[in-house]
């Protein structure tokens, strides 16, 4: 970086490094949020399937058997 002394270059390099780190953190957080949304959607779909099966089998609203 022409026109900058070593100290200024070091400061600028440190800032750029922190910015790159923050960008990587942001990308990871975004991917995790997408994955969590996907899992939540999957769980809702599975719950709907369970409800449909319970209803079809006439089990909806019945208490599960108690084993002791």
Give structural notes:
The chain has 68 residues and is mostly helical. 75% of the residues lie in helices and 0% in strands. The chain contains one helix and no strands. It is rod-shaped and about 80 Å long. The termini are far apart.
In short:
The radius of gyration is 27 Å and the shape is rod-shaped.
Shape summary: rod-shaped
Integer-rounded radius of gyration: 27 Å
Tell me the structural class. mainly alpha
Distance between the termini: 76 Å
Largest sheet: none
Mean pLDDT metric: 91
Give the strand content.
Answer: under 5%
The count of helical stretches stands at 1
Poorly predicted tracts of residues: none
The number of strands is 0
Topology:
Blueprint: H1 6-56
Features:
68 residues, rod-shaped, single chain, 1 helix, mainly alpha
């Amino acid at each position: 970086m022409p026109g900058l002394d070593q100290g200024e270059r070091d400061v600028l390099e440190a800032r750029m490094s922190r910015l790159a780190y923050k960008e990587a953190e942001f990308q990871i957080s975004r991917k995790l949020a997408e994955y969590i949304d996907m899992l939540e959607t999957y769980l809702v779909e599975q719950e709907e399937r369970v409800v449909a099966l319970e209803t079809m089998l006439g089990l909806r609203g019945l208490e599960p058997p108690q084993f002791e």
